[in-house]
Amino acid sequence: MEDLTKLCPRCETTKPQTEFYISAKGRLSAYCKPCMAAYKRANYKPRPARHETECIHCGGPIDLTTRSSRGRRFCGAECRVSYFNSLQTRDFRRDNHLVKRYGISLVEYNQRLAEQDGKCLLCSTPEEDARSGVLDVDHDHDTGAKRGLLCHRCNWGMGILGDDPVLLRKAADYLEGKL
Questions:
Q1: What separation, in Å, do the N-terminal and C-terminal C-alpha atoms of the chain show?
Q2: How far apart are CA 44 and CA 92, in angstroms?
Q3: In sequence order, which residues have a C-beta less than 8 Å from that of residue 84 and are 6 or more positions away?
Q4: Measured on CA atoms in the order 20, 26, 27, 29, is the torsion positive or negative?
Q5: Residue 83 lies in a domain
Q6: pLDDT tens-digit series, residues 3-60
Q7: Is the CB of residue 150 less than 8 Å from the CB of residue 130?
Q8: How many domains does the chain have?
Q9: Domain of 134?
Q10: Does residue 86 lie within any of the structural domains?
């Protein structure tokens, strides 16, 4: 007949197999149920929070009692809307556009603008009078090199003529009546 008892090494008592947990593989645990419970209580370490407990906008508490609170970063809709609206300032959007499109930051743009006295490099149109109130970043389409800040009309005119210096000189000669 099969032995239906097992020795628990922790409490050093022989107990029936029903006093031991059965693993997923069908094996009996090393310790009896009471010893295993005592071990787990003694060695319990709470897990760190998996999600924010404070609103990232106002610092207020997030209600974590609801199931949908998992992964929440704001205490309410007002904070969420206010937070994202604060990110969507004109300068924020302009900086993102400049970095993605031309590889320069708003700080670099403003430095170039100051070097040009706030005007188009060719026709001296002030930035305020330019289309949308900003100057275009003129760049070489082949190399990507940034040449300067131009008003939309000057940048467009050069682009229409293919950024070709010979063609631009011919156009200037034509306008001056030399052709």
A1: 117
A2: 46
A3: none
A4: negative
A5: no
A6: 789 999 999 999 999 999 988 888 999 899 999 999 988 988 876 655 667 887 788 8
A7: no
A8: 2
A9: 104-175
A10: no
162 within domain boundaries: yes
Domain contains 74: no
CB atoms near residue 12 (< 10 Å): 8
Are residues 71 and 51 in contact, defined by beta-carbon separation less than 8 angstroms? yes
Cα distance between residue 122 and residue 118, in whole Å: 12
Q: Is the dihedral of CA 54, 56, 60, 65 positive or negative?
A: negative
User: Which residue shows structure tokens 């430095």?
Assistant: 111
Q: Which residue has the tokens 């030399």?
A: 178
Asked if 103 and 140 count as a contact pair (C-beta separation under 8 A), the reply is no
Give the CATH number, domain containing residue 155.
3.40.1800.10
Tell me the whole-structure pTM to 2 decimals.
0.49
Q: How far apart are CA 70 and CA 52, in angstroms?
A: 9
Nearby residues of 90 by Cβ (< 8 Å), 6 or more positions away: none
